[in-house]
Automatic annotation (TrEMBL):
Entry superkingdom: Bacteria
Domain Copper-binding protein MbnP-like: residue ranges: 33-233
Pfam families linked: MbnP
Signal peptide positions on this chain: 1-22
Keywords on record: Lipoprotein, Signal
InterPro entries in UniProt: MbnP-like_dom
Protein's recorded name: Hypothetical lipoprotein
Length: 266
């Protein structure tokens, strides 16, 4: 009889514990919180150092990078249960900039509480939003212009900008290079990237996860598509890739350029 009563009490205790845990989980997942996306630029396995660091490609070209900027937009988070939250497009424009602290991390606010496992974002401004003008982008046009992320000779954004100097077996003197993507001719060159989190980002009213994203700039011209700067060096201007057949190939390389290193749930 005592054993039966003991078992009954044990079952009741476990049931109450499960109900309590379930209640706590529901309470934790209520309301809205914030999440921070941190973009850490690297070249291969090395943290990026502007101006002085020599970065060697598989084609034996050595790059010294002086500027890297790119527009991050259209952020969508996916929860562990498969549901998604689309950050409002009107707020979803950020300029990653290696040269400034403000350009290396972005806090997104009013995110529904939950356990998030991946993020999708665009590099550039999608064509539909661009056609809406200020109605679709708010004051971001002025912000992008101030940051030098607008084409000077035509309407439209620079989606991605990488600049510096390079040498190669055939170009032995340090020579300027520029890689700028955006709308060129019939190619819009906007792309979206989806990356998984190694651990869940626990958005709560009292927890703001920081998602540490590594941007491997070696993938720009040395990813799936291999591009030689020396093949684009002409006219005494250096290697200027701002259009032509290489730009869509570079845009394709962006798909492997990002990964999440870790998530802080603080």
């Amino acid at each position: 009889m005592k054993n039966i009563l003991y078992k009954a009490f044990a079952i009741a205790a476990i049931s109450l514990s499960l109900i309590s845990c379930s209640s706590d989980d529901n309470e934790e997942a209520a309301g809205n919180g914030n999440i921070t996306l941190k973009f850490d630029n690297a070249y291969g396995t090395n943290d990026l150092i502007l101006n002085t660091q020599g970065n060697t490609t598989s084609n034996n070209e050595v790059l010294k990078i002086s500027l890297v900027k790119y527009i991050v937009s259209n952020v969508v988070f996916t929860k562990a249960d498969g549901s998604t939250f689309t950050y409002p497009k009107s707020k979803s424009y950020f300029i990653a900039d290696e040269s400034t602290a403000a350009g290396q991390q972005f806090k997104l606010t009013d995110i529904p509480a939950g356990d998030y496992v991946k993020v999708k974002f665009g590099i550039g401004v999608d064509e539909e939003q661009w056609k809406l003008g200020a109605a679709g982008q708010g004051d971001f046009l002025a912000q992008a212009d101030a940051a030098g992320m607008m084409w000077s000779w035509a309407a439209g954004y620079k989606f991605f900008a990488l600049e510096g100097t390079f040498t190669s077996p055939t170009v032995t003197t340090a020579t300027p290079f520029m890689i700028h993507t955006g709308k060129t001719g019939t190619d819009y060159n906007y792309t979206e990237v989806t990356i998984d989190f190694p651990t869940k980002a626990l958005v709560r009213t009292n927890i703001t996860p920081a998602v540490h994203i590594i941007t491997d700039l070696s993938k720009v011209i040395d990813g799936t598509n291999k591009i030689k700067l020396s093949d684009n060096n002409s006219g005494g201007m250096g290697a200027m890739i701002m259009g032509g057949a290489n730009l869509p190939l570079i845009t394709q390389n962006f798909n492997t350029m990002f990964r999440v290193d870790h998530v802080h749930n603080d």
